[in-house]
Predict the structure of DUF4830 domain-containing protein.
Amino acid sequence: MKIRATLSLFLSLVLLTLAGCGNQDNLSEGKTDEQIAADYVQALGYTIVAHEGEATKYTLEQKTLENLDYMQLWGVQKQKPDAYFGKDIVTYPFIVKGHPLEQQYSPDDHRICVAVMLVDSKVIGGTSVPLSKVKNLVMVGGAYSIEGKTLKEVKGLNYAEWLEHWKKTYGNVTE
């Protein structure tokens, strides 16, 4: 009888564990892309002050990467853009508090905006930028990674080295 009870308890624990693991894979099931992006921002430890809604949606093509804005965005990503050619990328920006850029840019004068990029409802990266509270302008210097790292910190190259590599890989730069 003891063996039967022990076996029953063991099987129950195994089933509970499997059910728990299965649920981890489905955490984003039923959530909107914006909710998935917000969860990601909060998982990074940032407090969301404002949701800005869907900002951009585009299909990534090689030609897209010749545009300076997209170059800067992809320059601070850990992964290369190549895996996402032909994919629809949607971006959701959030105004946050508790971001590392607040050490550089006073919260009295700036707000920090993080933008999360998703493909097929999966987070693939993002950026962060300080915005001036005076004119709501992006500060000079381009985007940072979503964690507030510079291009050099992410890629290990200074801007000139990175730009030369970028041109060889993705073509000429256009505005």
In short: The mean pLDDT is 81. Residues 31-170 form one domain. Strands lie at 47-51, 56-59, 88-97, 110-119, 122-132, 144-145.
